[in-house]
Amino acid sequence: MNTHLFNIFIAVLSLVYVFGVVSVMDKFVKKGFPQDISRKIVHIAAGSWLVFWLFFDNSVWTKYLNILPGFVWLVLLIIKGFWADENDEAVKTMTRTGDRKELLKGPLYFTVVMCIMGTFFYRQEIAVISMGILGWGDGLAPVIGKKYGTIKYKVFVEKSLQGSLSFFIFGFLGVLILLFVLQMKIDLSLILFCCVITTFVEAISPKDLDNIFIPIVCILIYFVR
Q1: In this model, does residue 136 exceed pLDDT 80?
Q2: What is the mean pLDDT of the segment spanning 111-119?
Q3: Dist CA 149 CA 164 (whole Å)
Q4: What percent of the chain is modeled with pLDDT above 90?
Q5: 84 Rama class: left (phi>0) / alpha (psi -120 to 50) / beta
Q6: Exposed, middle or buried, 148 (CB in 10 Å: 0-12/13-18/19+)?
Q7: Are 109 and 155 in contact (CB under 8 A)?
Q8: Which residues, including other chains, have CB under 8 Å from residue 155's CB and lie 6 or more apart?
C-alpha cells in the first residue's frame, strides 16, 4: 500500500477509536453509568490515542495526520459547545453537569494539546510524558479523590490528598505504559520529576486550566533540565 494511503488509514482508524469510546460511554450513561466517571474514561482513552504513532510511516508528511482525532473533536466541541442539546452524546459523556458550555473549557483545551503534541512534538518522549500524565493522572485522580478523598485542601478548587497521590501514581504508570507500547526510551528521572512537579501544578490549578498547565510545565522541564 502507498505510504500516504497507509498513514491516512491509520489516522482514520485512530479517529474511529476515539469516536467509538465516546459512543460506548454514551450507551453506558444512558443506562445509568455515572456521568463524571464516563467523562474521565473518555479523557484517558483520548490521551492514549498516541499509541497509534506506533503504526504511522514517519518517512512522509502524512504522519501528521495523527492529529485527526484531536482536530476533528476540536471542531466538534466548538460546534457542540454552542449549539448541542442536552441529549448530545458528547454533552452526556464529556461534561460534569450536562451543560454544553463545559465542552468549551477542559475538553476543548485537551484537544488543542493533542494537536500540539501530534505536530510539534510528534514521536518525542516529552509528548508521551505529557499525555500520560494528563490522560491517566488527571483522568483518574478526581475519581479516586471523590470516592476516597478524606484529607481536603483548597487553593482555587477543592482537592484531596488522596486524589493528588492518585494523580502522581497513575500519571507515572500511564507514562510507563505508553512509552513501553510505543517502544520509546524510558528516562525514569525525567518521568518522576515531571510527575512530582505536575502533581503540585494540578493541585493549585484553577478549574479546567490544568489541561493547559500540565503539558506546558512538562515541556518547560524537558527543555530546561
Answers
A1: yes
A2: 96
A3: 9
A4: 63
A5: beta
A6: middle
A7: no
A8: 203, 204
